[in-house]
Amino acid sequence: xxxxxxxxxxxxxxxxxxxxxxxxxxxxxxxxxxxxxxxxxxxxxxxxxxxxxxxxxxxxxxxxxxxxxxxxxxxxxxxxxxxxxxxxxxxxxxxxxxxxxxxxxxxxxxxxxxxxxxxxxxxxxxxxxxxxxxxxxxxxxxxxxxxxxxxxxxxxxxxxxxxxxxxxxxxxxxxxxxxxxxxxxxxxxxxxxxxxxxxxxxxxxxxxxxxxxxxxxxxxxxxxxxxxxxxxxxxxxxxxxxxxxxxxxxxxxxxxxxxxxxxxxxxxxxxxxxxxxxxxxxxxxxxxxxxxxxxxx
Length: 297
What we know:
By secondary structure, this protein is an alpha+beta fold. Helix content is about 50%, strand content about 15%. The chain contains eight helices and eight strands. The longest helix has about 60 residues, at about 10-75. The radius of gyration is 45 Å and the shape is elongated.
């Protein structure tokens, strides 16, 4: 037997109340839908009004800004400000343009009137300049037509003590390891490093430290030698490596001090110029640390 369902049918009055309740629910749904539509319409209208007011405000704001700027420009304070700003700029320019070299420099320039000198007359003129309060370094600056590398032994050195370090693992393994550890730690207390051929593989790691400083040993410039002590004596005695700098074909060479005197400086200059290929020399200039340059022809 299946389940029985009993349906109770109420009176006509109850049915009418149900119908009215249904109608009220339907009316509420319609009212809510109408409210949503009106809210959406109001939002759209408000956005349109706001955008138009923004445009209006912008136009009014620009007008008011222009008016304010005109009033500000016409005020005495604004005129003072606009007058003071150019003055400050002019004062800065005048400060740069009114810079005057020292009387010593001007006097030296007056003595260097010739356009070209021999080595002898250039040295006479250089030594006749008013010098600074320290022993100035004498320099040669050589413009070349091409890249140049080489070495030269200056008869009288440069006047600067050259600190030479030797790396020879087969001769002294303990000293070699100590030097390598110092290099790895960035403790560079030498001006020149001479290594034996067997030491070069051990310097591969230190190349990134020595290379940028120009201290990496190289067979071409004599800093890789089977007899490092003999090579060290040459460099300590005045042997100098040189090369053109970067993208510019120019060699800068320190050749001694003013205190060397004419003869020693002349010997060093002749030794250096003699080591250069004549076909590659474009121009040569002699000067000291603080002096004007003198062209040697």
